[in-house]
Design goal:
The complex is a heterodimer.
Chain A lengths: L3 H14 L5 E7 L2 E6 L4 H11 L6 E9 L7 E9 L4 E9 L5 E3 L8 H12 L2 E3 L44
Parallel strand pairs in A: 2-5, 6-7
Antiparallel strand pairs in A: 1-2, 3-4, 4-5
Chain B lengths: L14 H16 L4 H11 L5 H10 L12 H10 L22 E5 L7 H10 L5 E5 H6 L20 E3 L6 H17 L5 H5 L13
Parallel strand pairs in B: 1-2, 2-3
Helix pairs in contact in B: 3-7, 4-7
Classes of the chains: A alpha/beta, B mainly alpha.
């Protein structure tokens, strides 16, 4: 696990190798190193971290989505990178807006991203540009909406307790 | 006359009475019993009932479930079916069928997601009449704690349920009690399909149009 200093060194190397604007910021919380990058540069940064960096992270352990409501940009995609040789983990994060939720797909870099990107699309509506099979994976094909977004209604049916009985008139029908 | 000595007296039965029974049975088979003796013989040995009752009795005591589990309640269901402690074969329901064509009963054991509901309905439609449904646990009955976007709140929204078993999950005793309740229902039920029972004519699945 790179410490705060090591994270800054990683960010410096990414800036030098890819582009200055590729790294948006770094956060180091709870001993977790997180590199925030621009969505347009996801493929370059992950390729660099996988192949060319002096401390490479060759394994994508997990890919998942986050909704940061009410922060903007709202949607986030996290890539948890793992170096199995050094037993080090590095989080890479990119943020996109709800209006333009497009992130380049990394399926050709990490085959494990295939189903996980489909799940992020299914739950958060992030579109992965270049994904070979961009369908829903958990919800039915004809489902509308992205249920894990925080402004999505929980759904289900109202549960009756004595305190909210009066709000659902003729519930016994 | 050659005396046939096969079988033996019941425990506590006088050997002379046994001999008498044996002789009267032989006379019956030879057609030697007549008149009042024949009447008494028939009354003692023949049980009369209606065909429907006999049919329901047979259905009740051979209610084969479909091998079908949905979620964690299925573990309890497997415990009921498979373990010697809760031997479901006492109720004639231990023959778990792998095909809906051969099953009489489907136990909805677990949460029913909206993606799974059409598949369950398809399986249910493939079962032959008469068929029964047990909704096992809070999830299959009302979505339980998973009252959210992904689940159907109650399996009775898309198929008729005969017995609901509360619990999360129900204990094996509860499932056995539900099966016994279903047996009571079968024993009393006229031999109608579920559409007649529930007044649901016209809900048959439309045939698939092949272009």
């Amino acid at each position: 696990m790179p410490d705060a200093t090591g994270l800054e060194l990683v960010a410096q190397r990414v800036r030098a190798a890819v582009a200055d604007a590729a790294v948006v910021g770094t956060t180091y919380e709870h001993e977790q190193a997180m590199l925030e990058i621009a969505p347009a540069r996801v493929r370059e940064v992950l390729t660099y971290l996988r192949d060319e960096d002096e401390e490479p992270y060759e394994f994508l352990a997990s890919l998942h989505g986050v909704d940061y409501l009410p922060e903007e940009p709202r949607l986030g995609v996290h890539y948890q990178l793992l170096s199995r040789a050094r037993v080090e983990r590095l989080g890479v994060r990119t943020r996109v807006t709800v209006d333009d939720p497009v992130v380049p797909s990394v399926v050709d870099l990490f085959p494990t991203a295939n189903h996980q990107e489909r799940e992020v699309f299914d739950m958060f509506g992030v579109q992965f540009d270049g994904h070979p099979d961009p369908r829903r994976i958990l919800m039915p094909e004809d489902y509308e909406g992205f249920p894990q977004r925080r402004d999505f209604p929980i759904g289900g049916e109202p549960v009756l307790f004595t305190f909210n009985e009066h709000k659902y008139p003729r519930w016994y029908d | 006359m050659e005396v046939v000595r096969s079988g033996r007296a019941r425990p506590g039965e006088d050997p002379a009475d046994f001999r008498q029974r044996q002789l009267s049975a032989r006379q019956m088979l030879r057609g030697d019993i007549e008149g009042d003796d024949l009447e008494r013989y028939v009354e003692e040995r023949v049980m009369l009932t209606t065909l429907e009752k006999a049919q329901n009795w047979a259905r009740r005591n051979a209610c084969w479930p479909l091998g079908f589990g949905l979620a964690c309640c299925a573990i309890e269901m497997i415990t009921v079916i498979g373990s010697p402690r809760n031997d479901i074969s006492r109720f004639g329901a231990e023959v778990v069928r792998a095909s809906p064509r051969q099953a009489d009963m489907i136990i909805l054991s677990g949460r029913v997601s909206i993606k799974m509901a059409p598949i369950i309905r398809r399986i249910y439609d493939q079962m032959l009449e008469p068929k029964w449904v047990i909704s096992m646990g809070a999830c299959a009955s009302s979505a339980g704690m998973f009252n959210n976007y992904a689940l159907v709140a109650g399996a009775d929204k898309f198929l008729p349920v005969d017995v609901y078993i509360p619990g999360c999950p129900p204990r094996p005793e509860a499932l056995i009690y539900g099966i016994m309740k279903l047996q009571d229902k079968i024993a009393q039920d006229p031999s109608l399909g579920w559409r007649q029972r529930y007044g649901a004519e016209g809900t048959e699945e439309a045939p698939i149009q092949v272009a």
